Amino acid sequence: MIFLVSTNLCYANPNCTTLRIPVSATASNEVFPIPTGLDYSNPAAISALIETIIGDGITTYPLIPTTYDGTIVARFCEPEVYIANRSDVVQYFVSGVTENKLYWSGLGYPNGFDGDMYSTIAYASKQGYPTFVIDRIGVGETTPRPDPIVQEQVNLEEAVNHELVMMLKAGTAVPGRAFNRIVYVGHSYGSILGNAQATNHPTDISAFILTGFGVSIIPVAADLPQTAPFPAELYSTRFAGYQPGYLVTSSEPGRRGYLWGKPGSYDEAIFELDYNQEDVVGLGELLSIGGGLKEAPVSTAPVYIVTGDSDDVFCLAATCGDGASSPQAQACTLFPKASACGYFIPVGTGHMISLHYSAQQSFQMYHKFLASHGF
């Protein structure tokens, strides 16, 4: 049992700052066989290509050194509750595809949908954790946009995360603040990037919270076509000038079925908000998923997995089951040296963990896990 001494508590409003952080990162990205003359405006053709490549699991593609030089836009918040033994810990948030940093604050800032109800950032702040949330390369305010196929892949994005983590530890990401312990909080593709970081840079992260995560990419490919992936530039004037390899989920029923799960488990208004302000996904991100979802043989950081029982991305037919046979429990096999690996399966919850009625319960469970391991 953990007791908090009252002299270590200080209450104030959260103090948030938007940061623009120059980053340079290099990694070996895959060279995928993109058909000549691929019709990006044909959702069936795009879905078939994705399913062929990530459903293969055998073919090894050539690698090419790839660099990203740009400015990562992040939001850093000092917590509204100060707790001395958490002042050197920062929660580092990385969103999934078609989402940006607003996912972590209830789809809005400074005010999210229904106040703090769906804000992971606000919940962490109330528990005394500093937070650092980024726009991944290709989404939100981060610039420039990389090539959506050649650059925007798991390996290079993980390398960008590694550089940012080193900066957080060195005190060069947040002026005047250096952190000894980094808690990586990912969602969906962001969780896959966390898996990749545990594999490629096993000493970077002190603990992993992986939401919307599972052990297999087969369901990802199998159920993706219902979303009707379509070029962002042709879909909305918001994306004018985007290269064809930047995609959105153009089918509202498809996005609902793939990402949101059972009707009644979420507020219809927050679904509509998410659909109307969705961000993009680079085709290279979807094609390279398999490169991130694999065993991290050295990392000893504790891992906690939160995936809903109706998640259609990592569970076939949106049926995840429970207990040791569930994809959530099986995902622990990817972290054989972890000092601990636990999981939580929120009932009646689809892929968008932070945006369901069960959000507060999910936030509570992962913070309980962190506290039990000294964070």
Give a topology summary.
Layout (H helix, E strand, L loop, with lengths): L8 E3 L3 E16 L12 H12 L8 E16 L2 E3 L5 E6 L25 H7 L4 E4 L19 H17 L10 E7 L1 H12 L6 E5 L6 H6 L5 E3 H4 L10 E4 L2 H9 L7 H9 L4 E2 H5 L15 E4 L20 H4 L10 E4 L14 H14 L3
Parallel strand pairs: 5-6, 5-7, 7-8, 8-12, 12-13
Antiparallel strand pairs: 1-4, 2-3, 3-6, 9-10, 10-11
Task: Please describe what this structure looks like.
It is a single chain. The protein has 375 residues and is α/β, with parallel strands linked by helices. The protein has 11 helices and 13 strands. The chain has helices spanning 43-54, 120-126, 154-170, 189-200, 218-223, 232-235, 252-260, 268-276, 283-287, 327-330, 359-372, and strands at 9-11, 15-30, 63-78, 81-83, 89-94, 131-134, 181-187, 207-211, 229-231, 246-249, 281-282, 303-306, 341-344. The protein has an 8-stranded mixed sheet, with helices on both faces. Strands 9-10-11 form a 3-stranded antiparallel sheet. The chain has a two-stranded antiparallel sheet with strand order 1-4. 53% of the residues are buried.
The H-and-E topology, N to C, reads as: EEHEEEHEHEHEHEHEHHEHEHEH
- Shape, principal axes of CA atoms: globular
Helix and strand composition category: alpha/beta
What is the terminal separation in angstroms?
13 Å
Quick gist of this model?
The chain is of the alpha/beta class and 375 residues long. Helix content is 26%, strand content 21%.
List keywords for this structure.
11 helices; 3-stranded antiparallel β-sheet; 8-stranded mixed β-sheet; alpha/beta; 375 residues
